[in-house]
């Protein structure tokens, strides 16, 4: 649970720094099973298992798949990329 000033912040959906890592909170709770994308301050963050994921992967979001690398969606990238043995064609960060 996300506690701020002694109160459970149940309306909070955000990334929160705790013990050296960024965690994804949804409705004031750590959502440890979520793989998603999260927009904050104009940037799209990759979330895997409820934590900010800084690796390279393809993450599904709202029915579409996106290339993430170093924790962010790679919107500026177009071309082919190999992830976990599979080659993907990418256009503006989205699997084509």
Give an account of the 3D structure.
The protein has 96 residues and is mainly β. It is built from no helices and 14 strands. It has a three-stranded antiparallel sheet, with no helix packed on it. The chain is elongated, with a radius of gyration of 15 Å.
Write a short abstract of this structure.
The protein is mainly β.
Key phrases:
single chain, mainly beta, 96 residues
Going across the major beta sheet, what is the strand order? 3-4-5
Order of helices and strands: EEEEEEEEEEEEEE
Residues in helices, as a percent range: under 10%
Indicate the overall shape. Answer: elongated
* % residues in beta strands: over 45%
Q: Counting H and I runs of at least 4 residues, what is the number of helices?
A: 0
Residue windows where pLDDT falls under 50 for at least 5 positions:
none
Q: What class do helices, strands and sheet pairing give?
A: mainly beta
Arithmetic mean of pLDDT: 87
Describe the main β-sheet briefly: 3 strands, antiparallel
Q: Radius of gyration, Cα only, in angstroms?
A: 15 Å
Find the count of extended strands (DSSP E, 2+ residues): 14
Distance between the termini: 38 Å
Detail the topology: elements first, then pairings.
Layout: E1 3-4, E2 7-8, E3 14-18, E4 21-26, E5 29-30, E6 36-40, E7 43-48, E8 51-52, E9 57-61, E10 64-69, E11 72-73, E12 79-83, E13 86-91, E14 94-95
Antiparallel strand pairs: 1-2, 3-4, 4-5, 6-7, 7-8, 9-10, 10-11, 12-13, 13-14
């Amino acid at each position: 649970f996300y506690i701020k000033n002694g109160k459970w912040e149940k309306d909070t959906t955000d990334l929160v720094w705790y013990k050296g890592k960024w965690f994804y909170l949804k409705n004031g709770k750590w959502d440890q099973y979520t793989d998603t994308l999260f927009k904050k301050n104009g940037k799209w963050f990759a979330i895997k298992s409820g934590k900010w994921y800084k690796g390279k992967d393809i993450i599904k979001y709202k029915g579409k798949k996106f290339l993430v690398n170093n924790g962010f969606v790679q919107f500026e990238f177009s071309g082919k990329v190999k992830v976990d043995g599979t080659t993907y064609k990418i256009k503006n960060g989205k699997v084509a």
